[in-house]
Amino acid sequence: RVISKFIVQALTNRDLTINGTGNQTRSFQYVDDLVKGLVKLMDTPSGVTGPVNLGNPAEISILDLARHIIRLTGSESRMVFHPLPQDDPVHRKPDITLARQLLDGWCPDTPLEEGLIKTINYFRKILQA
Known about the structure:
The protein is built from 5 helices and 4 strands. By secondary structure, it is mostly helical. Strands 1-4 form a two-stranded parallel sheet. Strands 2-3 form a two-stranded antiparallel sheet. Helix 1 packs across helix 5. It is globular. The protein starts with a helix and ends with a helix.
């Protein structure tokens, strides 16, 4: 949700709201990579059962994500900081070792910036409609 929230805020030149210092990390994946992983998982033999993590192990801080989105949108938005919720994890980094083993070396291959540009263009069209 943070990507869509930041993009809409940036495209409308509103402040990007960041919880805590923004140093907490998250891992993001473009939907096409997830779909490729799901298709590979569906093609495995019936004896293969889950859970199989199809996430992206590349981490980025929320602060860096906000900076990327402001830059890519050409926004004049500022970043404003709010208290960090108690249940907000500091790091999120999935382990995709099992997915790589079971799914012929599958891993996400869409670079973050490419996925952000596609997502920004999508939201730009929606907001212009």
